[in-house]
Amino acid sequence: MARDAALSTEQAILDAAERLFMAKGYALTSTTEIAKVAGCNQALVHYYFRTKGKLFEAVFERKFALFLSVFGQAASRSLPFESRIATLIGAHFEVLRSNPQLPFLIVNELLTNEKRLEEMAKKLTPVMKKALVSLQSELDAEAEKGTIRRVAAIDLAMTVVSLNAFFFLMNPIYSALAKPSDREREKMIEHRRQEHVDLVMKYLRNEV
Asked: C-alpha 157: how far from its chain's center?
């Protein structure tokens, strides 16, 4: 019972930290605020995670892994190749749709902190390499059939990430300028999702 309570408290702290870090970034988030949102005292935050830096690392690693994870999750092999690629692009798009602040967090906290970048690379590079090997085998098999040109998996991954991440980076600017209704915003988001699928398939077929 006590163990369950401890796990519940630890998870509450992690969830609270995630919400605050995603919304405000590392520098503007305090452990006092995290404790308040988590419904515990500040001492427990330090007990479970020692420092704000350690807590941020736990959150950031989880979110960045999520950002990359879809490239290792191939769709059902029973689907046609184009459907599998569309599923991959859509899954990555939906990760960002559910976490629209994630690209900002990565740019602000990872690319401006060389030490953190090195630490994340050590932890996540093996996972990413494994995912790319699996994706490359699919691309090579399809290229052998002549349905697509030969493409490096890393190039495909970079294309998908660039399209999806940049859209969510620009979305706040679009919203501020165009002031769309909720319905218009959702329609535009769905349009961009399909547009990204179409662009990537044209890229694979060498039609762009």
From this structure: 12
